[in-house]
Amino acid sequence: MATPVFKTALIDRVFFLRWEAPPTLEETQAVLGQMKGAYEQLKPPMVLVASLSPRSSVPNTEQRRNLSNLQSDARPLFSEIHAIVEGNDLQYNLQRVIISGINLVTRTYDETYHHVHKHADLVAPYLSKRLGVDGVKVIQEARSRGVV
Fold this sequence. Notes:
The chain is α/β, with parallel strands linked by helices. It is about 45% helix and about 20% strand. The chain contains 5 helices and 5 strands, in the order ββαβαβαβαα. The protein has helices spanning about 25-40, 60-75, 90-105, 125-130, 135-145, and strands at about 5-10, 15-20, 45-50, 80-85, 115. It has a 5-stranded mixed beta sheet, sandwiched between helices. A hairpin with a 2-residue loop joins strand 1 (about 5-10) and strand 2 (about 15-20). Helix 2 crosses helix 3 and helix 4 crosses helix 5 (about 135-145). The model has no long low-confidence stretch (mean pLDDT about 85).
């Protein structure tokens, strides 16, 4: 049985998304469906925390397009987006460049809206401020569920 490409969890108005590998179009559509379901259930404000496994390969052109489209479609659902890019310095920098490129193409670059982090603990203060929750506990729960 193949390892799933993504995992999701909804914890305290935070939609966590973990990419284990670059997604296909069908996988991004499945994730968007889950995001829309969470939005309908909770309404704003919601925060998206998306993380990339350090074992994930760099997405190819089609996969980058899929991720770009997902970001454009998901943007209205979230009041803040955080990307966690783990891994060695070279991989981190390549992935960060890709995320920055997606932000430029989709015109979603906004330092108050979209943040890129090297590890999940850096997201906790933003969650506390934006949602009034214990960000450290939310990240710990996400870690225990394997979504960061």
